[in-house]
Write a structure and sequence with these properties.
This is Charged multivesicular body protein 4b. Its main location: membrane. This protein is an all-alpha fold and 222 residues long. The protein contains six helices and no strands. Helix 2 runs antiparallel to helix 3. The longest helix is centred in the middle third of the chain and has 58 residues. It is elongated and about 170 Å long. It starts with a helix and ends with a helix. The model has no long low-confidence stretch (mean pLDDT 80).
Length: 222
C-alpha cells in the first residue's frame, strides 16, 4: 500500500476509486477548513502584535514572547496559503478533467446515435433514393401538365383561319367608322347672316339729341 493509501485509508486492488464529483467536494471542504484556519491565524497575529505594542519597553520579555508567537502564526499562515494554492490547482485540474470526461461521454453517446441512424443506410442506397425522388418529381410534373391542358376546346379549329376572320371583323369595323365620318361632312352648316347688326349708339350723340329736344319743347311753350 502506498503512503497516501496508509494515510487516507485507501483500499487495495479491489477498492473502488472515488468519483470526480466526490473528490471535488472533498477538496472544497478542505479549502473551507483551511480558510477558517487562515482567519483564526490572522486574528491571533493581530492580537500578538497588539500585545507586543502594549508592553513595548515596559515588559520586554512579554513583548518578545508575543512577537515570537506572531512569527509562528505567520509561518503557519504561509504554509496554509501554499496548501490552499496546491488544493485549488488540483481542484481546478480535476474539474477540467471531469468536464472533459463528460464532453467525451456525450460525444460518444451522440456518435452511437448517429451510427444507429445510419445503420441501414449507405451511399448507394442514398443515391438510389435520390434518383427515385427525382423520377417521381418528373412524373408528378408530367401529370400536372396533362391535367392543366384544355381538352376538346380549340384543337379542331385552324388558328390561321381564326386570325383571318378576326382581321375581317376589324376591317369591317374600320370601314363603318369611316362611313360615319364621311356622313357628317354632307350635313349643311347654318349660313352667315347677310345683314349687319345694329351698332351701339354713341353716347355723345344721344346727349346732343336730348338737348335739342329740350330746346324744342321750351320754344313751343313760349
Amino acid at each position: 500500500m502506498s503512503v497516501f493509501g496508509k494515510l487516507f485509508g485507501g483500499g487495495g486492488k479491489g477498492g473502488k476509486a472515488p468519483t470526480p464529483q466526490e473528490a471535488i467536494q472533498k477538496l472544497r471542504e478542505t479549502e473551507e477548513m483551511l480558510a477558517k484556519k487562515q482567519d483564526f491565524l490572522e486574528k491571533k497575529i493581530g492580537e500578538e502584535l497588539s500585545t507586543a505594542k502594549k508592553n513595548g519597553t515596559k515588559n520586554k520579555r512579554a513583548a518578545l514572547q508575543a512577537l515570537k508567537r506572531k512569527k509562528r502564526y505567520e509561518q503557519q499562515l504561509g504554509q496554509i496559503d501554499g496548501t490552499l494554492s496546491t488544493i485549488e490547482f488540483q481542484r481546478e485540474a480535476l474539474e477540467n478533467a471531469n468536464t472533459n470526461t463528460e464532453v467525451l461521454k456525450n460525444m460518444g453517446y451522440a456518435a452511437k446515435a448517429m451510427k444507429a441512424a445510419h445503420e441501414n443506410m449507405d451511399i448507394d442506397k442514398v443515391d438510389d433514393l435520390m434518383a427515385d425522388i427525382t423520377e417521381q418529381q418528373e412524373v408528378a410534373q408530367e401529370i400536372s401538365d396533362v391535367i392543366s391542358r384544355p381538352i376538346g376546346f380549340g384543337d379542331e379549329f385552324d388558328e390561321d383561319e381564326l386570325m383571318a376572320e378576326l382581321d375581317e371583323l376589324e376591317q369591317e369595323e374600320l370601314d363603318k367608322n369611316l362611313l360615319e365620318i364621311q356622313g357628317t361632312e354632307d350635313v349643311p352648316l347654318p349660313s352667315v347672316p347677310s345683314t349687319s347688326l345694329p351698332s351701339r349708339p354713341d353716347k355723345k350723340k344721344v346727349e346732343e339729341d336730348e338737348d335739342d329736344m329740350a330746346d324744342l319743347e321750351a320754344w313751343a311753350a313760349n
